[in-house]
Design goal:
DNA-binding, 2 domains, alpha+beta, Gyrase A, domain 2, 4-stranded antiparallel sheet, Arc Repressor Mutant, subunit A, homodimer
DNA sequence: TTTTACAATGTATATTTTTTCAATATTTTA
DNA sequence: TAAAATATTGAAAAAATATACATTGTAAAA
């Protein structure tokens, strides 16, 4: 009972640095770290802390802290070997444009990955800190681009 | 199948205007409105829409749209734009003193927030760089102070 | 101190949510 | 248009999450 505050703190740390897909996964980590608790307690903690479970945009789920739109990016690598879910926020299409949102700092690197594919269908990319604009050639369809991006964003939707 | 887009739109409307505590409740509303679907489809919709289920701070749960910021709702009177979870380290009580540890640099600002409450129970605060000393009036109990700090430090919720 | 109230937690269970699988429907391609 | 590829969905099963209840620990009051 004494270590509740400490546990709460630890949960925050884990959630902000690791992608958590279920309470079971988080529970395992906490148990490994030496905390002694059950899933029931974890459920109560998450409820009180207002930590939310939300679709991750890549076919899975992710737990997020309140206000974690500006989550810090602990994963320095952005190469294709890193699961997309570590940097990916959203993808949107409008006319000949595709806008990909990433966690802060990732856009430039991911844009390079996209450029490296040298796809005919892509006229070019422009990247800021957390947003990539992909400009498509006329007549290129959404699905076509998704296929090109598939190994950068393994599962866009499922 | 044609009405999927319409249904998605309706879900957004409902979520933003009504407190939804479970998919079952949302499903009932949609059925009453004439939409024909099952809970399984709803689960998929919510996942794709990245709608989250989160503790409502009053003992229940609530579904929220991606844009809605949970921390803001919680910290209504907190002038700082920084969510509590980003600065809070620990809180301790001893006699008429309460010591709050923060991440470096935050103590002063948080102390201002505490002062702004102008609570009778608090005689004053002294802040360093990462520590706040809250001096309580005689007879003020721990629980009482926690109630006062509740919307500055949401974590100590209970 | 002793009593009392309340908070924290685990266990077991209930509830809710997610997914698998199969059937259709829709869209794209040829 | 017909065939092929994709997407959407429901029903049922599986998985995940939440809670009722009982117990124990902690703090406040007397």
């Amino acid at each position: 009972m004494k270590n509740k505050i400490e546990r709460i703190q630890k949960i925050k740390e884990i959630i902000s640095s690791t992608k958590i897909e279920s309470q079971g996964q988080l529970l395992d980590i906490l148990l490994e770290e030496g905390y002694d608790l059950t899933q029931a307690t974890l459920s109560r903690d998450l409820k009180r802390m207002r930590i939310a479970k939300v679709g991750d945009g890549c076919g899975g789920y992710s737990y997020i802290l309140p206000g974690q739109n500006v989550a810090k990016t602990l994963n320095t690598s952005h190469s294709s070997s890193v699961p997309a879910s570590n940097w990916f926020i959203s993808i949107d299409f409008s006319g000949q444009f595709c806008v990909i949102k990433t966690r802060p700092g990732y856009a430039g690197g991911i844009a390079l990955d996209i450029d490296a594919k040298e796809a005919d269908q892509i006229m070019g990319t422009i990247a800021g800190d957390d947003t990539i604009l992909v400009i498509l050639r006329g007549g290129v369809r959404k699905k076509e681009l998704i296929n090109i991006l598939r190994d950068i964003i393994p599962i866009i939707d499922k």
